[in-house]
Design a protein that fits this description.
Layout: H1 2-14, H2 29-35, H3 41-55, H4 59-62, H5 64-78, H6 86-106, H7 112-134, H8 138-159, H9 164-186
Amino acid sequence: MKKSILLFLGALAASTSAVAHPGHGLESGFAAGFMHPFSGWDHLLVMFALGIWAARRPAAQGWQLPVLFVTVMAVSASFAKAWVPVSLAETLVTASVLVMGLLLVSNLTVNRALQIGVVSIAAAAHGYLHGMEIGNQWSGLAGMVLATALLHGLGWVLGRQSHPQLQKATQLLGGVMLGLGAVWMLA
């Protein structure tokens, strides 16, 4: 478990500030798509936190949330140039940081319809911004989907752990996300 936490902290330290638009260095292809979720705090935190939160739902429901996220994100990325202004999508991504932070901190009971709605909106916004970066490159989309699924999976594994220190660390992560989300909303 300590190795998993250290791996996560290393990934956080290696990522850059919240940047959900072109200019991350890799311009195209599978590697660019794969690296994008690791290149900004907003993407990294939300995808990791969703895995943790989903793992804490009843087993019959939890696994469906990351699958829904990846699916909606991929579809949204495919239609990136078609549906909303970039500023609205960036606001929704920032809001997703706040919402996921709140869910990790509070352990709120959220009804199934609201779970699906929140995950779908966050996934659509993240997918839209990812899609703006990778364009119509299927290899980039495949890389992005794989990286997102890996982050959800890492969160899932940690979310299934019942160690008290990990529970406290998850709440701390949620608090950090609330703070970062609030700062980004005001910026």
